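Hey, can you fold this one?
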Amino acid sequence: MAEENDTPKPEENTPATQESAPASSPAAGTTDMGLVAYIAFAVGFITAGLGSIVSVVIAYSQRAEVAGSWQESHYTWLIRTFWIGLAGWFISFILLFILIGGLLMIGVFIWMIIRLVKGWILYDKKEPIPDPDNLLFG
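Sure. Predicted structure:
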């Protein structure tokens, strides 16, 4: 019986399992929530806004944790893009009845895409949004 306990089992403590475990499961707390927020916002374009709602919830919940850093401007940027975009979609929908809403919807869509792409590029470079409170493109 003592001999059975002394011999290591092949699946325990081998270099192969020790090396592959960290690669397949990231350590807790290492998820880049800013990147997740940008991806969720992009997914919102194909999920009727559901991804954008997830994005703005992430932005609101994470903004205080990164206060004073370059990431804070990105969360503010995403929050403002969401709310201004939502207002634009609402106004566009109302104006559909007088035939100008379709053009406005296209404009709001392009505006949101430009803001998303610009923010994502700056986020990837780890640079802040120069003016996250700007209504246009920062």
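Helices lie at 2-6, 15-24, 33-43, 50-63, 70-95, 101-124. Let me know if you want another pass with a different chain boundary.
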